[in-house]
Write a structure and sequence with these properties.
The complex is a heterodimer of chains A (about 270) and B (about 70).
Chain A lengths: L2 H6 L15 H15 L5 E5 L14 E4 L5 H11 L4 E7 H7 L1 H10 L4 E6 L2 E2 L5 E2 L23 H8 L3 E6 L3 H13 L4 E6 L6 H6 L4 H10 L1 E3 L11 E8 L6 H11 L10
Helix pairs in contact in A: 2-7, 4-5, 5-6
Chain B lengths: L1 E5 L9 H5 L5 E7 L5 E5 L10 H5 L5 E5 L1 H5 L1
Antiparallel strand pairs in B: 1-4, 2-3
The chains are: A alpha/beta (about 270), B alpha+beta (about 70).
């Protein structure tokens, strides 16, 4: 077993419940590498919702909340306000984050609360058997869209950037080094950080959407269908933009505002006002 | 020579390491892991560049690449 894996993962719950070739493990390892780089294991807490990707933090040797479907963000906001000293990571999937918890995402982003959301996008509801998710591309045949999906997919990064999130990035599992760097940057950034990771789901998405079951072929495809924006370049059509999309340090953070207000009113934290 | 170990309890036989290694160090073997699939084997370890891609891209953290004492001295 890998040295870092041994340090951060509960051995007794291995092997993980992910299918062979699943990208969630790659994201897990990138997160571990980022923790190691920052050296902040004791300051961290993780929150997750329901779904394949929400199982990622459940293997970590640290404080973890595995909460209701789509409600990871409200739980995390509560935890952040109760313990402003903790750095909080949220692992969530595309259905958990954009469909069931979509409204929570918009409001957390507009508050600019100091959380790091890692949205693992595999284009499908994997755990329940391959239903259409909000990120499923148009025309994809899934269990619940047998004639091809009619809906336009929701772009999580644009949504968060528009709602007011201050750090927005997108990477794929084929870019593990950049992903690790982005997670470290997201944790260090004070404000709402949103990192979307395109992962391969060889079992459900590979079967239904992409038509290839090999995880390596899917990762190669992700490399092909993405581009990194550089100043003044022509935007290729039909490709997904990856890299750091937004980084804004000018907005005020929500926890600071709340604590400042409490101080003005002479209320100690944890004391009731009455 | 690199000290490459593949954990039998973690590996699930997804074959990502076979194609990701730039020096093609991993090959298919007949050994079974605990999951019940065929696991890779590390051959030609002298060619290892220590790029760490196999460690990073293994979804189960099964691969560990360490430098041996001779390599460290170099």
């Amino acid at each position: 077993m890998n040295e870092l894996y041994e340090k951060y993962i509960k051995k007794e719950s291995l092997p993980t419940l992910f299918c062979p070739g699943c990208g969630n493990g790659i994201v897990q390892f990138a997160a571990i590498k980022a923790f190691e780089k920052l050296g902040i294991k004791d300051e961290l807490a993780c929150v997750s919702g329901i779904g394949c990707s929400s199982w990622i933090p459940c293997y970590f040797k640290m404080d973890v909340m595995h909460t209701m479907h789509g409600r990871a963000l409200p739980f995390a906001e509560g935890l952040k306000l109760a313990r402003p000293d903790k750095k909080i990571l949220i692992f969530t999937g595309d259905g958990d984050c954009l469909a069931i918890g979509g409204n929570h995402l918009i409001h957390a982003a507009s508050r600019n609360i100091d959380l790091t959301v890692i949205e693992i996008n595999n284009y499908i509801y994997g755990m329940t058997g391959g239903q259409k998710s909000p990120a499923t591309p148009e025309g994809a045949v899934t269990k619940t869209s047998p004639f091809g999906s009619y809906d336009e997919p929701i772009d999580g990064c644009s949504l968060v950037a528009a709602a007011g999130g201050t750090y927005v990035a997108r990477w794929t599992t084929a870019h593990p080094l950049q992903l690790e760097k982005a997670i470290a940057e997201g944790i260090e950034h004070k404000g709402f950080s949103f990192i979307e990771v395109l992962t391969q789901c060889p079992v459900q998405a590979g079967n239904n959407i992409f038509g290839e079951k090999s995880p390596v072929a899917m990762m190669a495809r992700y490399k092909e269908m993405t581009y990194i924006y550089k100043e003044g370049m022509e935007i290729p059509e039909g490709k997904v933009r990856i890299g750091r999309i937004k980084h804004d340090t000018s907005r005020k953070e929500y926890t600071d505002k709340v604590l400042q207000k409490l101080e003005e009113k002479n209320i100690k934290k944890g004391q009731s006002n009455g | 020579m690199a000290d490459i170990t593949i954990d039998k309890a973690c590996c699930k036989g997804c074959d990502i390491c076979l194609s990701i290694c730039p020096k093609k160090i991993f090959v298919r073997s007949k050994k079974r892991n605990d999951y019940g699939t065929n696991m890779p084997e590390a051959v030609n370890r002298d060619a290892c560049l220590f790029c760490g891609m196999c460690e990073r891209l293994c979804p189960d953290g099964a691969i560990s690449v360490r430098k041996t004492e001779e390599e460290k001295e170099k």
